Amino acid sequence: QVQLVESGGGLVQAGGSLRLSCAASGRTFSRYDMGWFRQAPGKEREFVAAISWSGDRRYYADSVKVRCTISRDKAKNTVYLQMNSLRPEDTAVYFCAAGMGAGVKFSDYDYWGLGTQVTVSS
User: Fold this and answer.
1) C-alpha angle 111/6/16, rounded to 5°?
2) In the prediction, which pLDDT does 26 show?
3) Would you list the DSSP string of 41-108?
């Protein structure tokens, strides 16, 4: 079992930055691939970024590729999403997820956090 708790969301002006954190509990955290997804009001949940259990592979949605960086700290059982040059269209609830053999699909992930709200004002 893996439990995930996101933090770091908030209100920021367009062009600003935020760093989201996802704290995981469970001794097997290091075995899981980790992902970030987001869901805006009235829209489906969409993939943002993912990192392999070893940290040597990273995947990004085209919409955030040059603006976001995903990383993980195994010693702290934490995954981060650094977001720069934020845009109003980045406004959404951001969810952290864990899965084995996971990639860019929602169905790849077995465990989910409750999400953290990111609001970008224009």
Assistant:
1) 135
2) 80
3) TTS--EEEEEE-TTS--EEE-TTTTTTEEEEEEGGGTEEEEEE-S--GGG-EEEEEEEETT--SSGGG
